[in-house]
Design brief:
- The structure is a single chain.
- By secondary structure, this protein is α+β, with helices and mostly antiparallel strands.
- It is 47% helix and 23% strand.
- The protein contains 10 helices and 9 strands.
- α3 packs across α9.
- It is globular and about 75 Å long.
- The two termini are 31 Å apart.
Amino acid sequence: MKTQEEIYQYYGTHLKGALAELEEKRKALAKKIILSMAIGIGACIFIAIILGPAIIFLFPFAVIIVLLIAFLIGRSDLGKTYALEFKTRIIQEIIRFIDPGLIYSNKSYIAEPVFMLSDIFKTHPDRYGGDDLVRGAIGETGIEFCELHAEYKTETTDSHGHRRTEWHTIFKGLFIMANFNKNFNGKTIVLPDVAERFFGGFGKMLQGWNMARPELIKLEDPEFEQLFAVYGTDQVEARYILSTSLMERITNFKKKTGKKISLSFVGSKIFIAIPYAENLFEPRLFRTIIDFEPIKKYFDDLQLAMGVVEDLNLNTRIWNKQ
């Protein structure tokens, strides 16, 4: 992994010039959005003054329309061109600097069947997409990761016959798939342990009643057990996979991310899902992009994903792949 000093030097020598050029494009796009919003809000105020207080109840709707205009401009060809150029000139270069053997594709993502193969999430998405796919090998370990957003929809009908569709997030964040150098006969799924943390022994009993999951696996690491609930189709294999050292590494990785991470071991792969509320590799629009701090954040997020190989010791071949 690159050090803070190496990252700062690379930022100064290779990225700052490109960022300065992109900063002018960012300012132009932000100015267009702000101007459009100002005109829209001014028009709403003028109409409200002309039509009087009776129309004031429409003002919130007018504000929503103004914000929608700003969003559409940001998503327009101009906004997409700026984002694409930023990813090509900045994100791609950061990835090459971290590991020149990795391949970056800003519009690609891990396919839905692979996402479902992980068995981390049981709900099948009705809407699925992503971007920023990185793939290649770190040492001897093949790895792929990207941003994903999977959603399902619900439809309800009120007493007046009006249908309403709502979208719910299954997962939004960083999804990682890496080789584990072992063909598993069964599945082992490691999920955030919420029930035991809040309900103690009763929570563990509730986990055992989870009919959507295989059998609950009881392990001998108290700290790991507090953080995770483990389900598996093969008790012996699950304990074989989750050795004392690997449980310790997963615990440390969870603390490093500060997120409710989920993992699974399926086929010969390890899958890791790390939820994020924000989009990770998108450029700023209303704040400068020249500062080092946002660039450091891109480095940190990328190195977090790539660091899985080192953090979980995946390059150590403790098994022969069969």
